[in-house]
Design goal:
Blueprint (H helix, E strand, L loop, with lengths): L1 H23 L4 H35 L11 H23 L1 H15 L7 E8 L5 E7 L4 E2 L6 H17 L7 E4 L7 H11 L7 E4 L10 H5 L8 E5 L4 E5 L11
Parallel strand pairs: 4-5
Antiparallel strand pairs: 1-2, 2-3, 6-7
Length: 257
């Protein structure tokens, strides 16, 4: 114990001195802390001033590239501003002009291609409001609405494909039509109807992106072969990390018509 007390003696003496300075009012620790903080504040103020000067200099450089739009009336600019509304009104008028034809053709095509309601669709209704939205409804011959939300994925796809075909047939030009994943969600009966009634007269030029499980080599391709001009098959080479192309449909050649 005595050795420990002797070892701690310098610390005890320093502690006594601190107490004495505090009692005599000679503790300058707080003053020193204040002076350090004041010095730091001055340094930060100088840094802020430097940053403000840099910002002002950059603003001056940016202003050299600013271009203010003249306030002089520009008839061409005013006309361009009106064009979006003009084309929106024009498209609405065109839709209304062909509305009856679209509805009639949609009804006929759905009665032929939509297997789950084939032959029982009484009417199709398109409606346009003041907004850009176009609502589509179809009704059973008994009068009740057939809701699109109640159709399965395959039937919904058929409805969209029929709409594509109708809009194409009513268009004023004949662009190519490209369809991807054409049979992925269709049942057997729907596949047969689409192959027989939909694709053969879909468009002047139709590009189908398909797999051999969608349009099979055993049965489906034979039905379309009379309407096919060119076939291509993509072969993935995993070893060489590349894709090669052959002019066939998974090994089947297009017959000369």
């Amino acid at each position: 114990m005595l050795n420990q007390d002797i070892h701690d003696m310098p610390k005890q003496r320093e502690l006594i001195k601190d107490y004495q300075r505090s009692l005599n009012g000679n503790d300058y620790t707080i003053i020193q802390l204040y002076e350090n903080n004041a010095k730091r504040i001055d340094e930060l103020k100088d840094a802020i001033g430097t940053k403000k000067a840099t910002i002002k200099d950059l603003e001056g450089q940016i202003s050299k590239f600013d271009y203010e739009i003249p306030q002089i009336p520009d008839p061409q600019y005013d006309l361009l501003c009106k064009l979006p509304d003009f084309f929106k009104q024009l498209s609405t008028k065109l839709l209304r002009a062909k509305k009856a034809s679209i509805e009639r053709m949609m009804r006929d095509q759905l009665n032929q291609n939509l297997v789950v309601y084939a032959g029982v669709i009484g009417r199709v209704e398109l409606s346009t409001g003041n907004s850009d939205d176009i609502s589509f409804k179809m009704y059973h011959k008994d009068g009740n609405e057939i809701f699109l939300s109640q159709l399965n994925a395959g039937a919904k796809q058929t409805v969209m494909q029929v709409l594509l075909k109708v809009l194409y047939n009513l268009g004023d030009y004949e662009p190519p039509v490209m369809i991807d994943t054409v049979m992925g969600v269709l049942d057997k009966e729907s596949r047969e109807v689409i192959l027989e009634h939909y694709f053969p007269d879909l468009a002047h030029q139709t590009i189908l992106l398909s797999t051999d499980t969608e349009i099979t080599t055993e049965h489906d391709f034979d039905r379309l072969q009379a309407y096919v001009a060119k076939t291509y098959t993509l072969h993935r080479d995993k070893q060489n990390q590349c894709t090669t192309i052959t002019e066939d449909y998974f090994g089947l050649q297009t017959k000369e018509i």
